[in-house]
């Protein structure tokens, strides 16, 4: 694992939607598809690996939250996410509800 990935791993955490709302208000949330590893995506963004990032965007594996997602999450503020801060963004993946 690279030093960058090790550093990012320390920023990887679980968060409730309530905590993420301020980041959503400044349009800094990026939703990462379930099939992708948050640390891999964070490392690509932090190291300006634009071909990988653009590929994920093109395949709709990375995207800003939709108004529908925001509405759903706002109605359940205890919704849990895996979150990774990669300034200025916060990468999130929805945690499956049990």
Automatic annotation (TrEMBL):
A Pfam family reported for this protein in Swiss-Prot or TrEMBL: DUF2288
Listed InterPro entries: DUF2288 (IPR018741)
Domain of life: Bacteria
Designated name of the protein: DUF2288 domain-containing protein
Organism of origin: Anabaena sphaerica FACHB-251
